[in-house]
Amino acid sequence: MSCPVLALALSLLAPSLAPQEGWTALPQPAVCVPSSAPARPVERLLRGYHILIEDVPQERLPRPAAAALDASALSALLADESAREEGELRLFGAAPPLLARGSKADLERARASLADLDALGNALEIELAAWWLPQAEPLPAWPEDAVARARIGSALPLGKAAVRSGASVDLGVRRLRRFVASFEAEVASDSNVAEPRMGRVASGRTLHVRACRVEGGRAVVVEGLLDLALELPFQEFDPDSSDLGVLQEPEVAALQLAFAGKVRSGGWLALSITGHGQHSGVLLVQASARPDPAAPVRWRGFDVASLAAPLLDWPAPDPESDGLIEEAPEPAQLRAPLPSAQLSSAAASLLGSSRRGKLGSFSSSGSAGIVWGEGLVFVPLAETEALADVEALVRAAESERTRSYELALTHGALAVRMPACEGSFVRVLAVEERTALVDYDVEIAEEAWIPLPRIERVLSGLLLEGPLQGGAIMARGWRAEGRPDERLDKVRANLGALQLLDQDRLVLAARVPAGSQRELVSAADSRPAVSLMLTPAR
């Protein structure tokens, strides 16, 4: 072959034989950057107790993960997309850094996909702010913007935070004070010693919030636990025993409200409490989010963090228990989550017939796969049928799980008004909590013995809680009144002085459907009625 002919042939083959670009570091999309979280989050006190023993963990529930795409899923997305386009993109390692090598077209296609992921990742952030207004007049659960801003005025916020969709955050300040709760014994053959057992008293004003974008970022679902705890002057109790020291018996006035509600981006939720002394006031919560990117090029992402968390039945506090030395039981799961993997699988059947059925894979026929991460689903724009199906699934599930109501509870002078949401857990706990020395155990050796105090926690007040499912609250709880009313001295109790408890308890249980008001307990014997009303949000 002559040189001119060879040169012509090589020029025709040049596009396919052109060397690949060198290794290039592709930008890491925001959706793959882990969301920040406090190193040691504030305990949420889910059992409602505020008098704690140091070595008993009170934070039992894991915090749901924020929406994010795993680095390995990102690498699979880019590699499989290149294979669909018959490209030769090569990837080294997982992000960050994500090193890629390929033709100019390969790299441009990868950058376009990363830009779509980055745009959604930047839109996942939710801004939260909360204000506590003591002794303020009640507000509806969804106050108007102008009304909420007028109420706030120049008040300092309880806290502000920016979180990724699906994440939780703690706002406010909690104080922990140590006290001598009880004693443990060391007994040898001819000697003994009592070792102080230290406890903690939790007080302060905290709000624990999980926020999720819904409706493509045009609205936000806020699930929260408001915890108000005031430490009262504590008492001391002397067992009148030469083997034991003086016990400290703290007392805490506590109010816990578990609530949930959907607001339009920039909107407000309000919790109103009246008739409860220093815990009377209004909590205002504002949540703002950004909508999904308007014009993605290759991939559309769906934020499904609101569907990924299960509905849990929290362990209820007991008005009289030795809970000081018990770990909280695990919560029961009332409803399974709807994770992004399940949504992806449901839509995968609508992909091309050569689809291999593995998320994040492409078939040789050129049919793209659905990729999912924690609280996220990504669908190629070219897959119009699967795209429409995922959108319909998400819209239907969100519509059901974000139906909102206003809950109103009255118990004598106490009145609570707050938002509630389908598939959420609601709680009203208004109690005074303290401890008492109610009995003794004995540790005995050959020539020595020592009494061991048995401590019980005592709650006086009201608990009403339960899940909201099918447009009704499955309410249960109790009303209890009691405290140590008599000291039994050592002469009569033998081992040491102790306290005798006198307590009345009434169990509450009812199904309260939306649009109705129920009197759970009628007024009797100077005790007020307990009434609950559930109203659909306007």
Question: How does this structure look, described?
Answer:
With 538 residues, the protein is an alpha+beta fold. It has one domain. The strands form five sheets. Strands 2, 7, 8, 9, 10, 15, 21, 22, 23 and 24 form a ten-stranded antiparallel beta sheet that branches. Strands 6-5-12-11-20-19-26-25 form an eight-stranded antiparallel beta sheet. A three-stranded antiparallel beta sheet has the order 1-4-3, covered by helices on one side. α5 crosses α6. The longest helix is centred in the first third of the chain and has 20 residues. It is globular, with a radius of gyration of 30 Å. The N terminus is likely disordered.
Short description:
By secondary structure, the chain is an alpha+beta fold. It has one domain (26-34, 48-536). It is 16% helix and 47% strand.
Main attributes of the structure:
single chain, ten-stranded antiparallel β-sheet, eight-stranded antiparallel β-sheet, 7 helices, 47% strand, disordered N terminus
How much of the sequence lies in strands comes to over 45%
Choose one word for the global shape: globular
The helix count comes to 7
Flag low-confidence runs.
Answer: 1-19, 353-367
Major sheet attributes: 10 strands, antiparallel
Number of domains: 1
* Radius of gyration of CA atoms, rounded to a whole number: 30 Å
Provide the residue-averaged pLDDT.
85
The count of strands amounts to 26
Query: End-to-end span in angstroms?
Result: 84 Å
Class inferred from helices and paired strands: alpha+beta
**Proportion of residues in helical segments:** 10-25%
